[in-house]
Amino acid sequence: MSQDNMIKLECTVCKTVNYHSHKNKKILKERLEMNKYCKHCKKHTLHKETK
Residue 20 pairs with which residues in a beta bridge? Predict the structure, then answer.
């Protein structure tokens, strides 16, 4: 995978970047939102894609 497909997922509560993932930007145009576990908040929170 190239670096162009890499995305960062940021916690909406504490604003820390917890996850890195890949995304096909040709198919998915909108920003990704997922419920993931945040180790800083110690609970599942909404994580949004950042630049």
Answer: 8
